[in-house]
Amino acid sequence: MTEPTALGDLELAALVSSRICHDVINPVSAISNGLEMLSEDPDEGMREAAMDLIRKSASQASAKLQFARLAFGAAGSSGAEIDLGDAEKVARDFVQGSGKHQVTWQGPSVTLPKDRVKLLLNLVALGVVALPRGGTVNVEIDGSPPGVNLTVRAKGDAARLNDQVKSLLSGANGVEIDAHSIQPYYARRVAAAAGMTLTAEVTDGEVVFKAA
Predict the structure, then answer these.
(1) Is residue 4 part of a domain?
(2) How far apart are the first and last CA of the chain?
(3) Can you spell out the DSSP letters for 121-178?
(4) pLDDT, tens digit, for every residue of 73-82?
């Protein structure tokens, strides 16, 4: 399908739900595989391998769901604020769970309106996507709350930003959108709700997302 000026609420909810399911299906499936290994009563070495798989996969699934709760969920009532300390923790667990990415975080220990925190976390997720071979996602929060500026720098080999993501972030029409491409579209919608403008720039080895 093509992107209209704004997706309907039901369609947006369906695509976001599909994206979350896509993110958690792999670790959940791995847990199931580990349990099957245990049920076959393998030797001690196989049992330990199965338990290690289950532990790691459960940790990954929990990190992805905690991240989704803040990045996509209601996170409290209308007008609620979110502690940046909580946002940093879920971002670190989410990003570093793959073993290919690291996070640096520079910003004050304050609470911010939930839409700004949701936007920041969505930009973090886009930073991970921009680093298919791994790298570092640098988060920078500056300014006086609540009027802060948000910057996410994705640094690493093969850092890239495809045209579809760039177009959706800028609000272009006629761009194909599905569960894989819903994140930049959703980020732009959250930025509008937060009264912020998004930009994305690509340089050699770095993709920079900014919201101000």
Answers:
(1) no
(2) 30
(3) HHHHHHHHHT-TT-EEEEEEEEEETTEEEEEEEEESTT----HHHHHHHHT-SS-B--
(4) 876 555 588 9
pLDDT of residue 75: 61
- Mean per-residue pLDDT over the chain, rounded: 89
Q: What is the CATH number of the domain that holds 111?
A: 3.30.565.10
Domain hosting residue 20, numbered range: 9-211
Q: What predicted TM-score, i.e. pTM, was given to this entire model? A: 0.89
Q: How many domains does the chain have?
A: 1
For 27, 49, 61, the CA distances from 56, given in Å and listed in that order, are 8, 11, 9
Residue among 170, 193, 173 at smallest CA distance from 6: 173
Kindly indicate the confidence band of residue 138, based on its pLDDT and cuts at 50, 70 and 90.
Answer: very high
